[in-house]
Each structure stands twice: as C-alpha cells, then as structure tokens.
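Annex B, item 7. Sequence and structure tokens for protein A, then protein B.
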Amino acid sequence: MSKVWFVTGSSRGLGRSFVEAALARGDKVAATARSTASLDELVTTYGDAVLPLELDVTDRATVFDSVQRATDRFGRLDVVVNNAGYAQIGAIEELTEQELRDQFETNVFGAAWVIQAALPRLRAQGSGHVVQLSSIAGLIAMPLGGAYQASKWALEALNETLAREAADFGIKVTVIEPAGFATRSGKNPDPLANGHLAETNPAYDGLRQRLAGMMGNQPAGDPAAAARTLLKIVDSDNPPLRVLFGQGFHQMLEQVYADRLKTWSDGQDLSVEAHGNLAQSSATTP
C-alpha cells in the first residue's frame, strides 16, 4: 500500500533523494522547499503524485497551512520527514546573537512547528511515522560547530520526548544521524566550507587550519543508498528510534560515550558531596 509523505527541505541533498525514492516506488509526496522552482522536475516526472509547496519552516502559520494542504490533497499523512536545516559555523565567541537565533529558528523551531502541525492528524489516524534528520553532530561536539551542534542536540531530545509521548497513539519516531554524504559535486561536504560562516576572529585561525585538515577524510556516503535504507525503515513494523547513516563514526561514538560514563564515575564523590544530607543537617541545627 502506497504511503503519503510530507518532506521539508526537498530541493537538494538527502531530502531530495528521499523524495525521489518515495515517488519512484509509487508513493505520494508533499515536497516543500523555499522555492518550488527547484521542484519543477519532480512535477514533470511524477505529475499529481507530488505536491510542491513553498515553505519557510520558520513561519509557523505557513507550516500549518502546508500540512493542511497536503492532507487535503492526499487525504492522510503516513511519513513526516523533518529534513530542512543548515549549519552555522563559527567559534562560540564569533557567533552573533542573530546567527545563533537563526540557527535555532530553522533547525529546532522549524522542526517543532512541523511536528505540531502533523501530530493531530497522525493521532486521529492512529498511525504515522515522524523522521527527524539530525546529524553525527547531534551526538558529539567539535570546535567551531557550537551553534549547529547545539541545535542538533536539542532535536535529539525533542524527538526522544516525542517518541515517548506519541507511542500510545500508534505514532513511530526515528532520528536519522548522518555522517558525511556526497550531496554536492559527488564529494563529502566540508561544513567549514559549505556552512554559514560567522565573521572570523584571528585568534581561532590556527584551530580552523587544523580542523580543515581533518575534514573530508571520512568516506562519503551515497544519498541514493541512504534513501533506500529510509524506505526500509518506514516500512518496518518496529523501526529504530535512532540510526546512524554512514560509516566511520561508530567507533568514535563508542569512545565518546565511554569517556562520558568515566567522567561521571570519577566524579561520584563530588556527586555524593553535592547531594548532602538534609535529615542530618536538620537534626544538628540548633
């Protein structure tokens, strides 16, 4: 049975690959982008199976209107893919207030508006699948990515909470955490070159140079393969809450989480000291 998709950020990258894979197998897709001109080729190829929608996810009213239009057109929603987002690059000291706010407006608030608009419809159906595009940056922190990583960490918590809140209504949630994918010119994208760049402070030039030498060393993933894997996930009766897309980071994540557990374990004496003993304190107070 074909599915109905609502996908944000459909103009290019993984979002575009997801849309094309769904349409190619006979599903229907409400594809959103900042400009519907980028979706013309899809309409030409797939006709009425695709509904192009111009959408800026930071505009909450337009998000709700777009979800309504998709539901009116196709009668239901089965898969909601929160893919729209971008990377703001810069040291914490370099970020302007507006850059930090804009990062969260798109990556976090935009995703929240889509969820809020779609959830009543999924709940009424008693079914549906919310797919959130996070990132390996939602699990680890590296220099110069504080704004982007903070937004992705927020999305991880938002969607884990959603999974617990929506499970009783038959709604599934999956957080996709991609590593590098060859979404531009067949290469593993370098966020230091392709993201939104803050005005640089020379104090961080050395750090930038060291990181530039590290970027792009991981093998770039194939977006078409990622799309095929997503189809398998949304067709599953028991999809994972989280899944890494791509190779090269699993071992790093194991070390990151081992280090966190060790840090907490090593600080147990401080934890006990900070807790105190209210009963004893009350008893000895004159």
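Protein B:
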Amino acid sequence: MTRPSLADGLALRGLRGATTCDTNSVDSIEAAVDALVTCLVERNGLQADRIVSVTFSVTADLDACFPAAIARRQPGWDQVALLDCQQMAVQGDLARCIRLLAHVWLPAEQNPCHAYLGEASRLRPDRSGHN
C-alpha cells in the first residue's frame, strides 16, 4: 500500500474531537466513540488509508474499556496507529470525557472539520458545528 503524500495534493492535518459518556460502562463508551469517529470520518470524507494515527485520552472516571479497541473495529482501521491515555486531571474538568487527536491526510485545499459532541461541545463552542 502506498501512503499519500504532498505530491498527491494532500496535506497532513490534525483533527481534534471530544465527546462525553452518560456512564462509565462499555456500552456508553462504545456508543460515544462510535459517534465521535463516525462524525469525524463523515465531516472530513476520510478514507481509512489516509488516517495515520489517533490518540484517545479519557478522564480518570472512565475505565470500563479502551476507546482505541472500539475504534479498531472500523473498516480498514487495522493499519491505523491507535493509542489510549489518561487525560491530565484538572479540577473542574468535564466529567466522563473522551478526547481525540487524529493525524490524517486531507486534500491540501480542504479545511479540517473538528467534532465536539455531547457535553464536550462546551469545550470548544467554536468547533462544535461543521467548522
């Protein structure tokens, strides 16, 4: 498989996103991760072979499962580098929050569309829409 490059008219971009879970349960985390990943893929027209890596961070109150294991189920994501880590604990932080940073190849002229869903839309109201 040939990886995209600037020569292909593509640019390496960072996509940000976050969402929240109703509870610390496998079902709730799965639903939140699936919704966040699906939103980023759709908003940016992503193809699996153009996703380089995705790092998930979770607040300390989420420990029922690994978000990366859920994301790995996406079609074609078996070659995507995925990582989970715990979010830095800051007093007053949003509860049950999953954040992500994805490195992807996008057409050079395309602006990245970030996704902030659920209660996480409060983190970046400027990015919670289609911008």
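Comment on protein B: The mean pLDDT is 91.
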